[in-house]
Write a structure and sequence with these properties.
The structure is a homodimer. In chain A, helix 6 (about 280-295) packs across helix 7 and helix 9 (about 365-375) packs across helix 10 (about 380-400). The first copy, chain A, has helices at about 15-30, 60-75, 155, 170-180, 200-215, 280-295, 310-325, 340-355, 365-375, 380-400, 410-415, 435-445, 450-455, 475-485, 495-500, 505-515, 520; strands spanning about 1-5, 40, 80-90, 95-100, 105-110, 140, 145-150, 185-190, 220-225, 225-230, 230-235, 240, 245-250, 255-260, 300-305, 330, 355-360, 405, 430, 525. In chain A, about 55% of the residues are buried. Chain A is an alpha/beta fold and about 550 residues long. In chain A, about 35% of the residues lie in helices and about 20% in strands. Chain A starts with a strand and ends in a 19-residue tail after the last strand. In chain A, strands 5-4-3-2-1-14 form a six-stranded mixed β-sheet. In chain A, strands 6-7-8-9-12-13 form a six-stranded mixed β-sheet. Chain A has a four-stranded parallel β-sheet with strand order 17-16-15-18, with helices on both faces. The interface between A and B is large, with 78 and 78 residues.
Chain lengths: ~550, ~550
């Protein structure tokens, strides 16, 4: 059996755009010479709607549009058997569904059984669970082959051994197939599984485990969405295992790909996932995240405040890769507290990156503010004021050019509130807002445009004379460790102190800072998610909790 | 039977504070002379944790602290039968539970059956549903009386005839009680039901319907939480119906109240809810919302930009009522586009309110910015710049005083994006962010401090010469109607045009503006919720959806 993996980049809720993309792809498959033609085309989960339209799903008009465009624009064009993810409404229930279409007709609709409602997922807000009582709730046939159809969590819930789910779906499916004395030639899973560090490798492991523990004689096909969507980055990386559980094919990361694969082809030597550096993988994710935010909101140009520090340098590099040097503007905004080195290093960076640049001193603006407001120098209020003048300046430049601002804050700063709201927190997105400072330092080494001076200098906000981040924060190496234990591993103060050996004073201080900074995070730009716990749809905390 | 309604204001996740409040109240009940002593004390849903700790519930340490403080600080003090809402963990499942405590022991733990996961509710993210198989899953006995214990949605789901829930819980309970041949003397419901316009009256209707349709011979007791919690305002308004379904008692709105009520007392004439004007009710909610945000985050003082328009005037009045005139600072920040009337009207308002004031011209700051940035006048960029200078000025003043800024935007503006991010959108909370402009206009008439000139003048942002809001927006009367149809009734463009008779051009323009403004709302201050659909935890939309 030949399967066409249609790893596409849908736009959330842009049904017309998605339908056109889907139709074009189907038509090009149908136009192939007979020996190359696939037996089945598979699109990802919710390929027609994008993942996820969120509360738009409550609008009856939107739901109706989904059904209509599928019926009127897509189905009538399909002759080759095709699986498309979309939504389906039936008896007042809404489902996350797969449409099996053949000969211009819907042959079957299969609903998602396990609805993830944790981390970034919120599916129980919108969907009902599909029935899982009978084998026919999962099964379709193509060319007399039995195909088991699963949707994302239905299979990937195995990652946590289905402990976040209502039941073990693979166990259930296995039992149903044994009861009916049927076996699956292939298990096909349509997914919208977002990127996080190490996730592509983890998906392969899950597939191999599902093969090993449940369906030893089946092929496994995992087709994943690709593309940036607000804070989430879908990485593609679709996978195929042959009946021996060996990796037959792995699709591209962070790119659309359409590929016809013969499931029965002989495998001389088993494939492996391309050996990628973890940070390089994250770089790929961030570039796609930036690219798609701009492309999908219709913007082209980005403004970045260049401080001479490592954070803004890295953001400038990522933006240059994502948008092209002609679309990125670096703005230096020195004050009397800016060191000479910072300005020189910034200039070097801007020259290396070949991006447009501007230098606007904030000193005169600051002085007028201080005079008009009657504010003292060298106070926290003055520090924040400098940061807000820079934010305002950047926004004005961006407004005048129809551009967006990229925020340069990192995860360590967002965590402890070492950032100024409406100041350096200005921006449409924060590309490195899910990277700890220590990760920023490591990642910067991959960009030859960043002068060594920037990489090695001690971090400073330069908002008062000779300021260093370590004046008010511990060394980032130590800070980031504590943050990780608290944020990703969900350890509490006692556990971090007793099990990990950090001082009680420091640990409590940091956790307290995290809680007190919640009001800032609630007004933060969109932070591109690359970790297991980012400050975004995966972070729901109350502001008044102190 | 005498019941003590303990309508308390918990602080989310401040277990020590909540436990102390609970203990003090229990001790004072226990110290009452025997004839006044209640037979049962009832606290609201999640009274110990506050509603709701959100992702803190994922922290094992927090869950353990909840169990420990209940056991070690509270239970040991309780002799009178008491019902307290908190969380309970069992076999790896977390429940939203009621603890029935007597003689210093937990006699029973009853779990919530129906978990709301719509609008502002997200309970399936955290909790498992309690079993509802047996009558004992609901039943406790006090003084040989049968009491049916429900938690919020378990009863209030009746509002939507349980269509958002997995089953009709009242039907189920009725069937179980008939099967076991048991009847309930009272149904007691512990709730954390947030305020929205008309909600207190609706709760009474629900209770009466539950009495009428399911348990005609039972008393009904609904004990509700009170207090502001981020965007949600719990209004109290606890209710008691006697066995005839008549209103026996209604507790205070927007205040804590502890009251012992004899369920069997004779009712000469049935009570009714106090007849309140809808807008006055909303004013009460907003004042509590402001008050609690400040009290619970530890702030006292507020800064408000006073423009001479109606929005800032109303916010200043609400803040004065909530925080006291000595804690509110009105700041006028005129530019050359400010009309003479605006400055005079502002001064009149500030004098009437007896709040401190300051006048800082932004003209010189604006000119320096324009020069330094090289920006043209009379562009959108210049308009935004003025707004951001004002935001920055307010933030600097507030920073210097350890105060918070209140944003003055209304719902009509947040909807269509007629507000400047990092400018007039600066602030910790937006007190009138869930009021349409037409509501703001109506509500202002309740405040005698607002000069008539402010109420009758045509709305203007005064960011360019002779600007009026109607230059770029339709009349607010018309705009607000379309917004309501789209936001609250979830009608789509076609329905608004065909069924409601608005022009296609205008309707589509407005819906388009709503979508395009999503990036602003994602960085907006906390908006106090008073409507059925506010821009906050009840509004989940993707930014890139256009």
């Amino acid at each position: 059996m030949k399967i066409c993996l249609a790893q596409i980049n849908s736009k959330v809720a842009d049904l017309k755009y998605n339908a056109e993309k889907i139709c074009k792809l189907i038509e090009s498959c149908q136009a192939l010479p007979i020996e190359q033609k696939p037996d089945l085309i598979v699109f990802p989960e919710m390929a027609l709607t994008g993942y996820t339209p969120k509360d738009l799903l409550f609008h009856e008009g939107f739901r109706r549009d989904c059904q209509n465009i599928l019926k009127e624009e897509i189905i009538i064009k399909i002759t080759i058997p095709t699986l498309i993810g979309s939504i389906h409404e039936e008896f007042g229930n809404l489902y996350n569904s797969v449409f099996f279409i053949e000969d211009k007709q819907i042959k079957k609709i299969i609903h998602k059984k396990l609805l993830p409602n944790y981390e970034v997922f919120n599916e129980k807000r919108y969907f009902s669970s599909g029935s899982s009582d009978k084998l026919s709730d999962y099964l379709i046939q193509v060319k007399k082959q039995n195909l088991g159809i699963l949707i994302c969590e239905d299979l990937l819930g195995l990652e946590n051994n289905f402990e976040f789910n209502d039941f073990n779906n693979l166990e259930k499916l296995k039992n149903l197939s044994e009861k009916d004395n049927q076996s699956f030639d292939s298990i096909i899973c349509l997914a919208a599984s977002p990127f996080r560090e190490g996730q592509p490798e983890k998906r392969l492991k899950i597939l191999k485990k599902a093969h090993q523990d449940y369906f030893k004689a089946s092929n496994f096909v995992l087709i994943n969405l690709v593309g940036g969507q607000d804070d989430l980055i879908f990485d593609g990386n679709s996978l195929i295992l042959n009946q021996n559980g060996e990796l037959l094919y792995s699709a591209k990361s962070f790119e659309e790909e359409v590929k016809v694969i013969d499931l029965n082809q002989k495998l001389e030597t088993p494939n492996a996932l391309p050996d990628k550096n973890k940070l390089q993988e994250i770089i790929g994710a961030l570039i796609l995240g930036i690219q798609d935010y701009f492309a999908k909101t219709g913007f082209k140009k980005a403004f970045i405040g260049i401080s001479g520090g490592i954070d803004s340098a890295l953001v400038a590099c990522l933006a240059e890769r994502a948008l092209g040097s002609e679309n990125v503007f670096g703005v230096m905004m020195p004050s009397k507290y800016s060191s000479e080195g910072s300005i020189k290093d910034s200039e070097k960076l801007l020259t290396n990156l070949k991006i447009k640049s501007k230098c606007i001193s904030i000193e005169e603006i600051l002085q007028v503010y201080l005079k008009q407001i009657g504010l003292s120098q060298l106070t926290l209020a003055e520090e924040n004021l400098q940061s807000r003048i820079r934010g305002t300046t950047l926004m004005a430049l961006a407004n005048a050019e129809g551009a967006l601002v990229l925020a340069t804050g990192n995860k360590s700063e967002f965590a402890v509130g070492y950032a100024t709201l409406y100041g350096d927190m200005c921006g449409a997105i924060a590309p490195i807002g899910d990277l700890y400072k220590t990760q920023v330092q490591e990642m910067s080494k991959f960009f030859s445009e960043i002068p060594t001076e920037i990489i090695i200098k001690p971090p400073s906000a330069e908002l008062r004379p000779n300021q260093k981040d370590t004046d008010s924060l511990p060394d980032y190496a130590e800070l980031d460790k504590i943050l990780k234990f608290y944020l990703e591993d969900k350890l509490n103060a006692a556990e971090i102190i007793e099990q990990k050996g950090f001082s009680a004073e420091l640990t409590k201080k940091i956790i307290n800072l995290i809680k007190k900074a919640e009001f800032k995070r609630q007004q933060a730009p969109i932070i591109l998610k690359v970790s297991g716990c980012s400050f975004g749809s995966d972070w729901l905390y109350s502001v008044i909790t102190r």
